[in-house]
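Q: Hi! First time doing this. I have a protein sequence and I read that you can turn it into a structure. Is that right? Here it is:
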Amino acid sequence: MKCPFCGMDNTRVIDSRPADDNCSIRRRRQCDECGKRFTTYEKVETIPLSVIKKDRTREPYDRNKMMAGIRRACHKRPISVEKIEEMVNKIENDIFNLEYKEIESKVIGEIVMERLKSLEQVAYVRFASVYREFKDVNTFMSELKKMLDSTNEDSDQGE
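A: Yes, that's right. Below is the predicted 3D structure, encoded as structure tokens:
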């Protein structure tokens, strides 16, 4: 690593620890030439990912767009910001572990809905109503019925 002060490339790591986001490593380094210290961050390089939208246009993956949709679904629900962040991290891991260069937005939407379904049912229904573009009350009720049926099956298996 090149020293930002003197430009020499003989520096050494004197301290290393996880960064605040727990997704990168913070390293304190010291230059053997000038003795000055500086900090670097090391992060895993991700594959550039394009999202194929419903209209077949492509745009770069944007974590903030997914986060905004999930936050809207969780608005005024008893879900902490930490839980939302944790869920978004897990969704991103799911997406990047597929190792696609392009992914359809509907695949991302389905992954989000699966995670929301297990986190909070009202948030799941809110997200699903926008994502699935329910055309009328009957379609909405049909989705609620499916959710209730699966909840009842889960509770029946527990007995």
